[in-house]
Amino acid sequence: IYTSHPFTGTFDGEGHTIANLKFKAYKGYGGFFGKIEENATIQNLNIENARGPIEKSDSEPRIGFIVGQCNGRIFNCHVTNSYLLETEANYSGGIAGSTNNKIINCSVRNSTLAPTANSSGTIAGYLYKGEITNCYSSNNTVSGKSTYKGGICGFAQNGTITNCYVYISNFYQDSFSLIYEKKIKYILVEELDITF
User: Fold this and answer.
1) Which residue has better confidence, 92 or 188?
2) Structure pTM?
């Protein structure tokens, strides 16, 4: 969902599942929502068996299964059995490519992030002055040639990650960090396989 204007409202999926989603990157953003603004909320949404971006973008986009660029809030959204394709991206994440607001009570399971990106994380590729809380990553693979990779977030700058965990995840090539920077309040890591 992306027009010439980013989403500014509230989208409540009411616990429903969107299956077999295929999306393109448009004007630098890709996902179910390309970009949401500060007053927007996406909540109670499940995505299963998604694929994208299905065409090469003319720029290096911010891509995520739920939102490409999250300036708003994402609550209780879950992604399973999905695949971010081998493409060039700025930031790539299972929930959001990049966020500067809130991602709360979200998860990504049994999914793969394969873009060549500045940073990739199974919840968010890049966190700036926002928060990721009560989120988990389970049985995911981050395989693209990203500068930074993370089990929760690829690169975090002045953000807060609280009460999150990573379980049985695989990371290939380049550098790896569970998350980046500081303000980490609780993270549990189990059965992590890192291959360089």
Assistant:
1) 92
2) 0.87
